[in-house]
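Incident log, entry 3
Record: Short-chain dehydrogenase (234 residues)
Problem: checksum mismatch between cached and fresh output.
Input:
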Amino acid sequence: MEGMKGAVLITGASRGIGEATARLLHAKGYRVGLMARDEKRLQALAAELEGALPLPGDVREEGDWARAVAAMEEAFGELSALVNNAGVGVMKPVHELTLEEWRLVLDTNLTGAFLGIRHAVPALLRRGGGTIVNVGSLAGKNPFKGGAAYNASKFGLLGLAGAAMLDLREANIRVVNVLPGSVDTGFAGNTPGQAWKLKPEDVAQAVLFALEMPGHAMVSEIELRPTRPPSGPR
Ligand SMILES: NC(=O)c1ccc[n+]([C@@H]2O[C@H](COP(=O)([O-])OP(=O)(O)OC[C@H]3O[C@@H](n4cnc5c(N)ncnc54)[C@H](OP(=O)(O)O)[C@@H]3O)[C@@H](O)[C@H]2O)c1
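Fresh output:
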């Protein structure tokens, strides 16, 4: 572990990209808070990453955000960055999506990120600024078959983040979007093990890069693609 850096709250930290980000930031000396619903996995990860703070919670629940941000400030004395990464995907043709599935995807991927920003900003302001990283997707720019709910959520996230960046930059809060293509995780029922895909660690590297830019410089967007997809753009 390198010297001590900021205190970063990472959502969706129980597995996949969020877990990889927590591991990398911890190894680089950041103090990390781990938010997700699966408390057991958070406890197990926190047991491995010395000093990490498990924050069991649902990004759709405002009360869970209030508790998580307060716990970060209590444990670490500050919140210096938020990584809005938690997300779900239900891939179905638009006319087969139920309202419940639509709401699950939009509430998690879009409203969850809004609530994160809403609750993190006062804490970031208390320390004079900070960074918000949103893990969006190339699906936030490119619609695909079966992506109606997921595309809508990730297109929406870019709109939310773009406006938030303009609202917050003068207060010394950077808003960064990391937009990966296909990542080799269990996301949306995928079976991991496909070598051509990006690795969760690659996305973690992009998050770290954005965090480590000097404070006066804001990387507003990183698009990340597998170099050699099997066919067509991904
Ligand atoms: N995999 C890809 O190909 C890919 C590509 C581009 C972008 N992304 C984006 O990357 C992000 C992470 O995806 P991943 O690939 O790492 O997927 P993953 O392995 O399925 O992980 C998703 C994470 O989100 C958490 N989560 C889901 N709903 C939640 C809720 N309501 N409250 C709190 N946490 C919640 C899950 O934890 P719990 O279940 O424990 O709550 C889990 O930690 C997502 O935003 C996704 O859209 C993924």
